[in-house]
User: Fold this.
Amino acid sequence: MPDLSVVLAGFLDALTITNFLYILLGVTLGQVIAAIPGLGTVMALAVAIPFTISLDTLTAVAFLISISKGGTVGGAVSAILLNTPGSAEAAATTFDGHPMAKKGQAGKAMKYSLYYSIFGDVGSDIVLILVAAPLAMVALKMGPIEICALMVLAFTVISGLVGDSLIKGVISVGLGFLIGAIGLDPGYGTPRFTFNSYELYDGIPLGPLALGMLAVSVIIREIAQMNRGSSGGSTLTVLQAKSQSVTLKELLANRVVAFRAFVIGTIIGAIPGLGSSTAGMISYSVTKQSAKDPEAFGTGDPRGIAASETANSAVVGANLIPLLTLGIPGNIGAALLVGAFVLHGVQPGPLLFENQGQLVYGLFGAMLMANVANLGVGQVCMRLWAKVVTAPSTVVYPCALIICTTGMYLITGSPMGVVFMVGAAFWGYLMTSFGYPFIAFIVAFILTPQLEASIVQAVRISGGDWTIVLRHPIALALLAMSGLMIFYLLPRKRKAEAAAA
Amino acid sequence: MANNPPDPERAVVLPTASGPDRPVTGGADEPPRSGLITLDRIVGVLVTCAGIWLLVYGIPQNVDHQGYESPSPRLFPQIGAWIFVIFGILQVLFVRTGTNLPALRDFLRFLLVGALLLGMVWLMETFGFLVGAMALLAALMFVVFETRKLWIAIAVFAVPVCVWVLFEIVLQRPLP
Assistant:
């Protein structure tokens, strides 16, 4: 069990005015940026990371996680008002949210989305708080051989779940191994692919790579696709209704749907490789299929909003389970968070609970505060965000680009950071164009040093005897699960490829 | 704007820029599907060749190996290279296609924006942040075909000044 004094000290660390103000700012930024179609939570995170360099670690991470939480609420605004999800995770919210808006109940739909989002968020945070520490203790008991096997399982799941093709997913992982291996090797300090450049001795920096591939490539791609006269304005005409408030009775009427969506979101969030959009879609489908009147879905049924919003928000907390306990980032947002952690000298993984338990519990406290802030800001500002969704993308994207570039220049302290970032953006663009999932590449890149260090330890313990794996039943079980996952995922991937073709 | 909600079971590609699944293009000059399959096969061959090149030349030339190390520092690059070889061949044999090539115009515009970013860094280093940022944003306003004077003024003048104030004064992080 974690030391209670550490838990309390952590929670007290979170309870400062500074932290609360940054959390408030974070959820506000998350909501407003995610409300703008095409930007989304990842973009909000990418833009915010440079601003955290002067903050202390807890404030910085709390700020970023608040943005994630705000993003799940804000994404629903444009999904409901414009039938275009502001962020990918709100895609399923359009199915019933927009029809409600067209009936003149836009305010009601946004309130439903806000309340169910907060419910999913709080629930998954509680699961995270209860599960993370015991899981990290189990992870700490695992030796390097088990960790190697766990990494193999993580790579299998991520390669199999991300993108349309398992083969391309594995190739992306292979590329991640290669790029992640640049620098000094962990066993003997031998330089690898450094080309006599001392800047490469520490390997390719994660920050420019993650920001370039995950955010800048998307921004430049959007700019590149713009045509003359594409700035446009809002086409929204929402009729006014007499009452836009939601009663507790109306909320509780969908409690079964919301609870099921929370379970789905939490489970999906804890699995690396899946994300909020998948959770929202699956939850919506399950709810529709299990309803007595499935034909009501798509016509403005609040159950649709409950299913989508609760599930996609439940992913945010659950996503931190593999990240904080095993150091495995589950999706793009988590990968960016790893970048932010590393920027502040914190290495996510099981040792985080042992070495910096106070920070982790401070983070948990901040997450709970962020839920309160999210609810308050959503209540007050949802109507305001409805105006923000009309901001022209011709101005928003270039401004986001300038912030990312300036931030990267400051983070790395030299123009080389921007050069790396632009190079990574180009590489991400190529990978996406050719159907290679870059999230698999990023995860492999992040995990390679950890996996390599585990292999070095395992080989030294075993004296080079690879059959030592046979004497470690947990490692064997994890490897067997990897094998089973391949057999499970391969036929599905082939179906997906056939559908894509 | 679609009036009818799409079927969630069939909705795979999301209409947003934040995910990796977003289709990259869909221009009139997009090659036909069979061409993309051929292209996928060509890429598979290139991936395989890259793997072989790494195994035969790239890794031995760039990673020293004395012989006593266990595991060898070449182990991980070699795993990556072998993945390229094996799965590159599998891609040639089995992959249908997930390729979604951008139109040539979009690709060239992507390169242009990348070059502008690098140019901005040079301008920043030479003439200071404000000059570099304003020049970049002015150039980007042309690239995105923005013609509304108020928005141009906000983007070109107000945003760089706000960013400068935020980093330089509020966050105390000196900009060039």
Q: What stands out?
A: Chain B touches chain A through 95 residues (CB under 8 Å). Chain B has five helices and no strands. Confidence is low (pLDDT under 50) at residues 1-31 of chain B. The radius of gyration of chain B is 24 Å.
